[in-house]
Amino acid sequence: MPGTLDQLPPLEMWGGLECTVNRVGDRFLDQMELNGHAHRFDDLDRFADLGITAIRYPVLWERTAPNHPDDADWSWSDRRLARLRQRGVRPIVGLVHHGSGPKGTDLLDPAFPTLLARYASAVAKRYPWVTDYTPVNEPLTTARFSALYGHWYPHRRDEGAFYRAVLTQCQGIAAAMRAIRAINPDARLIQTEDLGEVFARPALAAQAVYENERRWLSLDLLTWRVVPGHRLWDRLLAAGITEGELRHLADEPCPPDVIGINHYLTSERLLDERVERYPAWSHGNGAQTYADIEAVRVCADGPGGWARLLRAAWKRYDRPIAATEVHLGCTREEQLRWLAEVWSTAKALRAEGADVRAVTVWSLLGAFGWNRLVTEEGGDYEPGVFDLRAPHPRPTAIAHLVENLAAGKEPTHPVLAVPGWWRRPSRFHYPPVDRWGADVTPPDEPELPDGAPAILVVGPPAPLGHTFATNCAVRAIPCARLDVPASTEWRAAVLDAIASHHPWAVVLTATAGVRPEDASAVASACAAT
């Protein structure tokens, strides 16, 4: 494997479309219907214009062949894959994304792998030029939501069903790739999985060890690691998985060509038995009572984050890796900080010798209902690279950042001078602890670094200016205020303030008495700073 930066291919910017089609009861919840991409062909040009080299793109089993793998309607995917090919964007074709297949099968169905393989074969025959596939997105995460927590179909809540669902999906991935490679021997498996880490107080160390081992299970199954001596071997057998099933998968492994890591800020957890410190919704587990809390809200050390997780995946598997979902449901400036941090992290790891191939800007059109775990219609909309709260998808500041990164330019937006909220003191919701749950006093750090570029807010001493400045503070955007009377004499004061503060933007909160030539002078002064 490559070991130095000059041996690695260039770091790529990929894109991703939130395309979940999951089943709840007898209903299928379809993100592409919610975001409109199912009916908006010109999205493809919007995506390509960003400069991305590849896109995780759905040719989903549930949408394309809902009745039978041999009875597919290719009209939707024919046109769209052809357009991506014309635009030079490589599709990473997904077949199942948090789903359980069409009606008539599910993640506990012994026939699921065979049926998925038949559908995968049909896709490969239809598009023999496609080289990259993700047959099943996040198999372990999907199994947790479907068979351990009961949120999605088949709504089971037991460990045996969970392990069976993980195994079934991994069998399906292996079978699908065999079927695809029978047609295209050069096809690559880009296998995605959500990855986090669990920290705990000493009383809960065993639970943390178990969860930190379990997080690798789907990738371990695909890379012939689950054999006698694996930490979960006995637990799998006790849950009803047979030794023959595990040995068969180990004897015919399907190692990913690229391991795709998906990570969100809430994926790192702290387990604490002192439940009185935390809200009731965080309490759980059948054997021990403890609170399961977002580590970013309580751990003084801060999140291990992408660097720790990508490095761990690289060391464990020694295979090319990529960040395959980079999305933060938050304000625009925090979204910019999140993407810029991941890109910087990928570059730093490559400098260490890790074979990091790409960073994927996820949720190009945003996402719907994840605040309710996509269990019902509705829920919050989180905008992404494009914001759908406009007559047409509107490119956001993230789009400009993606364009720059894809073109090899360094990010320069002024808000990037301030670290993301996950690295600022205001992130704490609970008494701070270290990663072993011991109480600590976090370092006394300022919320905003000195010298960060500021916005200049100009206007009379009125509520509007105060509100604007307050909102800037909440969003960690440095802001300087200049209160001036509503008169034509304000011009000199504003120009002096611009020369003093060098703002990257000026906001006028009142325009009464502002002459066009004065506003033009302010604009010229801003451009000169």
UniProtKB/TrEMBL annotation:
Gene3D superfamilies per UniProt: Glycosidases (3.20.20.80)
Any one GO biological process: carbohydrate metabolic process
EC number, as in UniProt: 1.1.1.133
Domain of life the protein comes from: Bacteria
Keywords attached to this entry: Oxidoreductase
Keyword Oxidoreductase: yes
Enzyme category, top tier: oxidoreductase
GO molecular function: dTDP-4-dehydrorhamnose reductase activity; hydrolase activity, hydrolyzing O-glycosyl compounds
Protein name per UniProt: GH1
Native species: uncultured Thermomicrobiales bacterium
Upper classification of the organism: Bacteria, Pseudomonadati, Thermomicrobiota, Thermomicrobia, Thermomicrobiales
